Structure formats: structure tokens, C-alpha cells
Amino acid sequence: MRTFRGFREFGPKAKGLSTKLLNVARKVFRLWYAARDGTCSRELFRQLIEPVKDALHRLLTLGRWMPIKKVQGSCRYLLRRIDSLWTFVDRPGVEPTNNHAERMLRGAVLWRKSSFGTNSRRGDRFVERILSTVHTLRLQGRHVLDFVTHACRAALHGAPPPSLILALG
């Protein structure tokens, strides 16, 4: 939706396309919310979404021939990935947005902006690994400091490190 809103900046033709694309996107979300909330069966949802999928494909195809490079590029990008856009239709539990992933990365992005990042590949690897570890432990409801302390002790004594993978049982 952000991309479609952005088309408005490129003149009246792109603004018209933007309006149509946003209307299609809103329809997608209305149908998905109904399916997710149980007010519409998954089977009916799949049937109702088909004409919406066709409309989006048609509009993106139109946009790909627009004389505006950024609009063309965005539409071509989405058309190359069109099947991926609809994964949520057939897979329960998959959402049509990346909001959850963006929320998960928000802390790392804010840290990077406020700290100016790292100055080496080694620093990059450390940050990637520690932030991934922190997020994983928090999602599992485990204590970050306890885990890191245990990992450091294990490294100092040549012992195996603790696992991020929870034992099923």
C-alpha cells in the first residue's frame, strides 16, 4: 500500500493508477479480515479473491507501461513476484503484510540509526548474531542475560554452548 500511495507523487496518470491499486488493496484486506475472523469461510474467501487477483494483475501490467520509470520499476518488481503476494490465500497463518517482521526488526533498525552501525565485518556479524539471539530468546520467554552469561562461561571453559533450540517434550 505504501508503494501504491507513493505513485501519487508522479502526476495525474500515476495518481489515477494509485487510486485504483489502493482500492484493490483495500478489497484484499476486507476479504482477508473476514476470512481471518471467521465471518467468511476459507473456501468462499478463495473464490472471492480471484477477481481481485485478476484486477491487481491488470493494473500492475498497466503500470509497467507507464512513462514513469519509478512506477514502471515498482510494477515490474511486483509482477515478477505476483505468486508470492498471494501466499496468504492458501496458507492459514500467513498474513498479507510484513508488519510482524517489521516490528521484530524495529529495535535493530533503531539501534543501527542511533549507534551509526559498526565499522567492520566482524562487528556486523556480532551484531547480527546477538540481535538474532536476543529476539529468539525473548520470543521463547527465556532470560537473555542468563543465556549470554552461560554462553560466555562455556566459551571460557571450552564447554559446548547453550542451545537456542528449545527441547520439545
Task: Please state roughly what percent of the residues sit in beta strands, choosing from under 5%, 5-15%, 15-25%, 25-35%, 35-45% or over 45%.
Answer: under 5%
> What count of structural domains?
2
Would you identify the regions where 5 or more consecutive residues have pLDDT less than 50?
none
Mean pLDDT: 90
Give the radius of gyration.
22 Å
Helix count equals 9
The biggest beta sheet is recorded as: none
What's the total count of β strands?
Answer: 0
Structural class: mainly alpha
- Strand/helix succession: HHHHHHHHH
Structural commentary:
The chain is mainly alpha-helical and 169 residues long. The protein folds into 2 domains: 2-90, no CATH class; 99-157, no CATH class. The chain contains 9 helices and no strands. The chain has helices at 2-6, 12-37, 42-64, 69-80, 82-85, 87-90, 99-115, 121-140, 144-157. The two termini are 42 Å apart. The mean pLDDT is 90.
How are the elements arranged and paired?
Blueprint: H1 2-6, H2 12-37, H3 42-64, H4 69-80, H5 82-85, H6 87-90, H7 99-115, H8 121-140, H9 144-157
Helix pairs in contact: 2-3, 3-4
